[in-house]
Amino acid sequence: MKETAKKTSYGVGIQNWILIFSIICAINFALGTWKYKNVSDRFICPSEYIELFIHYIRSHFRSFILLLLCVVLQSILSVIIEKSLIYNYVSESAGLACHLINSLLPTNFALASSYLVYIDPCTLFFVMVHVIHITFLRGISYAFVNSRLRKEWRECIKENAYNKKETKNVYPQNINIRDSLRFWFGAPSGTYKPEVPSRIITLNLSWLGVGLVKAVIFTYISLNILHVFVAPAVEECVQYIEKGVLSEALGCFLRLLIPVNLLWLIGVYYFGLVTITGTWSKVVGYRSSKQKDWWNSETVSEYWTKWNYFVHEWYKETIFIPLVKSGISSQSANVAIFAFSGLLHVFFVSIGLYN
């Protein structure tokens, strides 16, 4: 633990813990695997990794470009829908329905691509995760926040109390393509916050280079863990299940816990939350100060609110607070959040494993 000048503490031991845990697991796996199996048959060397990466880019380059264009189109359509609501070209219910359909545009594109063209499960899984978290959640948040601001704006106009200089409501000045693109491609958070002063996106190439190097290294390590340790254990477990030897299958499942845990720490935490989100924040000029020290949590509820702050913030602002304000108990609101989260996870996991 370290303490700042303001006497606030933050944890810094997680990286050392992961490093020690990784070394211990690597030694145990290396000794056990070299003793009973041949690691070299499944180990992916750097040259093979580069070849796989180049083949991967060539195979999916067109799909990624089309997906990027879908996201750009989604952000532009969001502005058009909001402009239509401002000038009363469409009703509130019709506008919200259009926002919902528009939020699903990139998701439906990825879904259609998975049925029309073969995409390997890992790629499709990560694409669905990022598409849902980056585009669907942002589209819903954009519609919800602007709906609230629009109601406040119209109430102020009815009372002749709207003053651009005095009011804190930035609506409808925030409805423009520049602000929309800044939110979709600039803000690390998935919750729309138009009242936050807009930042000029200036690409920090040094942070971008460091982030790319980290991403390559963590991807390479995760790929080898998956290929050398996880895949053989899963194949062995499936064979035991097909033969009806459940005790051996349970043993394989328990042996999977360590490599899967290590894969989660490196592939999800370091690659996703630290490398991607942290690099994204620094490259575009946003501070990633909202990432909490979730490893120091003392209760389950505290851990839940800290470990993935950006998604938790979206659930809180978009689902929990509106439900509580409408008269629903906090316990029922939490159940609704878990149900919605479960549906999202089942959706992108099932789509990712479709092929």
TrEMBL record:
GO biological process, one term: triglyceride biosynthetic process
A GO MF label: diacylglycerol O-acyltransferase activity
Residue stretches spanning the membrane: 12-31, 61-81, 124-145, 201-223, 262-280, 335-354
Pathways per UniProt: Lipid metabolism
InterPro entries reported in the protein's UniProt record: MBOAT_fam, Oat_ACAT_DAG_ARE
Membrane topology: Multi-pass membrane protein
Domain of life, per lineage: Eukaryota
The keyword Amino-acid biosynthesis appears for this protein: no
Active site: 345
Keywords: Acyltransferase, Endoplasmic reticulum, Membrane, Transferase, Transmembrane, Transmembrane helix
Compartment(s) where it occurs, according to its Swiss-Prot or TrEMBL record: Endoplasmic reticulum membrane
GO cellular component: endoplasmic reticulum membrane
EC number(s) recorded for this UniProt protein: 2.3.1.20
Enzyme class, UniProt record, top EC level: transferase
PANTHER family in the cross-refs: DIACYLGLYCEROL O-ACYLTRANSFERASE 1, STEROL O-ACYLTRANSFERASE
Similarity comment: Belongs to the membrane-bound acyltransferase family. Sterol o-acyltransferase subfamily.
Identification of the protein by name: diacylglycerol O-acyltransferase
Organism: Agrilus planipennis (Emerald ash borer)
Source species taxonomy: Eukaryota, Metazoa, Ecdysozoa, Arthropoda, Hexapoda
Gene label: LOC108738284
